[in-house]
Every structure is written in structure tokens, then in C-alpha cells.
Amino acid sequence: MRKLKFLCLAAALLSAGFFFGNASVPAEAATAKYYIGGMTAGFMLSAGGAEVIGLSEVVSEDGLHHPAEDAGICIGDTIVAVDGIRVKTISELNDALERSGGRQVSVTLQRKGETATVKVCPVKDKKSSRYKIGVLIRDTLAGIGTVTYVDSKSYRFGALGHAVCDDDHNLLTISDPQMYRCSVVGVTKGKRGKAGELRGLFLNDTVIGRAESVGDTGLYGTFSEDYDFSHCELVEAAPLAEATIGKAVIYSTVDGVYPQKYDIDIVKVDANNRDNKNFVIKVTDSRLIEETGGIVQGMSGSPILQNGKLIGAVTHVFLNDPTRGYGIGIEQMIGD
């Protein structure tokens, strides 16, 4: 097992202005049956380049050098190109530095949403005889999210309910298609002004599916047919037109590997919203509030059910009130 680094659940402040319309579940989904999710899953995403997570010295035959630091490269920068050639992985960066033969190269960086270019002179490392610039790099990110549904016939699944982005709001892509079961081992409770988070571990010996695409409405792929669905309810999906203000439930895993059902209220419905914010929900279940403070990072994708039907998934938390958040209508996820 390995420790898990969480991708952030997008945090939002309550905004005004709701409009009502007529939305519908796709025709092929109207009679389909879906296993209710709520279980956590771990996946690997590309960092979009070679992300700098540390700076180091390079020991050459003539002493110590700090090429990256001297060039102004900072922790948090992402190296996206060398001499105009795209760099996405650690291996591609190493190859580009080797091609330099020690000559000065132009390194293109992404920094806080801006692009910058710096000049760096790679130095030949005494021990490895490879050219280096003195950076510690990662090219993938490990994330956790909640599975929303699994189609009972095709085993196609949807999770998260919102886009997966880096700190600069760039959409991330899949690095490793294997999706692992996760065990939630702790919770940092949410509080006003600061989102909480689930703490978990990848169970590397348990592959539960294959991640195939990431979009604006979540993560999609195919679940393993060998997965034990005996703990999952089988339900129909319902359009937003059937959603009403009032009581509903969500399924989330905040301890271990099995989801629990928690009570919520649907406060508002906005069928016309295309920003993954079709519902405003409020957690009313005292158990969940006690355990997490409300909605926390890692719970995105938790399925929302009303009147025994799947109507959506949790997507956002309000920073000023962690018991409240947004949800996406299920037709937006099933339709993607």
C-alpha cells in the first residue's frame, strides 16, 4: 500500500440566480439499471509536464552547481518544453538534457497560469555521467474520488462529477488506466473557510476498473466485472424534472472501503446550469457532520438519491459552510 495524495475537490461560494428548465435522462438510460457507487477509488493522472517539487545541487568533476536555481526555476513550476520540444514525463526531460550535451537550453515553464522561458546550462553529474539541472521532478499525480454509478449491463462507470484540474485549472489527463480500490483511514474535518479532506491508502493489490477518459463532468471508464456488487443497490436514474426540494440521501465512504447512506436536503434545483451545479444540497445527517463536518475533499462523486432513484452526484463544497454544497444532475454524467 502507498500513501495517497489527494486532488482537491473544487470549493465554491454560494451564488445567486437559479433557473428552472426541462432536462431528461438519455433515452437509453431511462430503462437502464445502475449500481449505486459511493466507494472510493484511486487513480493516476498526468501532471501535464515535469512538475518541480524540489531543487538540488549537481556534483560535477569541477565542483557543485545549481543550474535550475541559478536560472530562476522555482518549486511548483512545471517544465513543459525544452528547446521548443514538448516535455510531459521525467524520461522525456532526461532525454532532452542528454541531447543538450551541456550546451545552454531554453526551458519553458508553466507558473501560476503564466508561461515563462528561462535559459539553463545542464551540468554533467559526476556519479551518473548524465546531464542534470538540479531539480526533483514528478510527472504523475495520485488522486482519490468517489464512484457515482456503474451500469449493470455495460459496467461503464462515472465518478467525481467535475473536472480534474491542477492548481492552475488545467484539465489533467490519465497517466495509468488502472483504478485501485482505496481505504479511507482518516478525515480532516471541514470548517468554515477551509475544506476538509479524506485521508486514504491505495490498495495496490485490488484493481477495480480501468479509467479511460476525464472530462468536464468527471472521470469515466469500465468497472471490473469481478467486483463484488453485493453491497451496491441497483436503481434507475431520474431526470432533474423529477427532483424536488426536500429530503434525499447520499452514499459516501468516510471510513474503510464500504459506503454508508447519509441524509441530506435538496435546497434548490437548477436544471439549466451547465457548470456541474444543478443542485444546492445541505447535509443534515448528524453522523456525517460529526465525522467530517459535512462535505470534504474526496467525497466528490458521492451519488445523490431521491425517491429511490439516482438523480445526481456531489461536486462542490461551500467554503463558508461545509455542510452545504453543489451537485450535478446524473443526466449530465450519463450523457458524457
CATH class of the largest domain: Mainly Beta
Termini Cα gap: 32 Å
Name the shape in a single word.
Answer: elongated
Strand order of the largest sheet: 4-13-14-17-16-15
Task: For this entry, give a set of tags.
5 helices; mainly beta; six-stranded antiparallel beta barrel; Thrombin, subunit H; 336 residues; Pdz3 Domain; single chain; disordered N terminus; 48% strand; elongated
Secondary-structure map with pairings?
Blueprint: E1 2-3, E2 11-12, H1 27-30, E3 34-36, E4 40-55, E5 58-60, E6 63-65, H2 67-71, E7 78-82, E8 85-86, H3 90-100, E9 105-111, E10 114-120, E11 123-124, E12 131-132, E13 135-151, E14 156-159, E15 174-188, E16 197-215, E17 218-223, E18 234-235, E19 246-252, E20 260-269, E21 279-283, H4 286-292, E22 303-306, E23 309-318, E24 321-329, H5 330-334
Parallel strand pairs: 2-23
Antiparallel strand pairs: 1-16, 3-13, 3-18, 4-7, 4-13, 4-15, 5-6, 7-8, 7-9, 9-10, 11-12, 13-14, 14-17, 15-16, 16-17, 19-20, 19-22, 20-21, 21-24, 22-23, 23-24
Could you please describe the fold and organization of this structure?
By secondary structure, this protein is mainly β. It is 10% helix and 48% strand. The strands form four sheets. A six-stranded antiparallel barrel has the order 4-13-14-17-16-15. A six-stranded antiparallel beta barrel has the order 19-20-21-24-23-22. It has a two-stranded antiparallel sheet with strand order 5-6. It is elongated.
